[in-house]
Amino acid sequence: MTHSARRIGRTLAFVLPVVLVLSGTLAVARVPWATTPGTQALTASSETASAPAKSRTPQDILRDKLLVELQEKDPGIALTHLQREVEARPSLAKHCMSIARALGRAAVQHYGPTRAQSFSRPVCDTSFAYGVSQQAAGS
Questions:
Q1: Is 112 left (phi over 0), alpha (psi -120 to 50) or beta?
Q2: Do 68 and 96 touch, CB atoms closer than 8 A?
Q3: How far is CA 60 from CA 2, 34, 50, 65, 102, in A?
Q4: pLDDT digits (tens, 9 = 90+) for 37-73
Q5: Cβ count near 127 (within 10 Å)
Q6: Is 97 in contact with 133 (CB distance < 8 Å)?
Q7: Which pTM was predicted?
Q8: How far apart are CA 128 and CA 106, in angstroms?
Q9: CA trace torsion 131, 74, 81, 100 (10° rounding)
Q10: Mind listing the pLDDT tens digit for each residue in 89-103?
């Protein structure tokens, strides 16, 4: 009798955790967390889950920071900060023109071409003004 009780106990000790884990996994897999009803969302099995995150370059970080500053304050302040950053970190000088053009294009979208042009100053060989004219022309 004790032998059969031990055998049943061992079987339960092995099977019960497996059943609990599988039922929990299936329950979570069927919950539509943030999607439309009727679809399954199991993000852990996503194809992009194993892809490493892309590291951002200093110029990308600076451009994004200045674009936010342009939206919250004005393009003049963003251009001043661009000039200070390039002076502080000369390695950013080769990216200054592309950042200033991006600021010019964003200024046109936010302020319109006439008002955006009024913020123009000779930072990075007047690339801001070029970005404004590019965006105003629609190219």
A1: left
A2: no
A3: 70, 30, 24, 9, 11
A4: 555 555 555 555 556 667 888 899 999 999 999 999 9
A5: 23
A6: no
A7: 0.59
A8: 10
A9: 0
A10: 999 889 999 999 999
DSSP class per residue in 65-130: HHHHHHHHS-HHHHHHHHHHHHHH-GGGGGGHHHHHHHHHHHHHHHH-HHHHHHT---STTTHHHH
Token couple for 123: 């930072």
40 dihedral zone (left: phi>0; alpha: psi -120 to 50; beta): beta
The encoded tokens of residue 105 equal: 């294009």
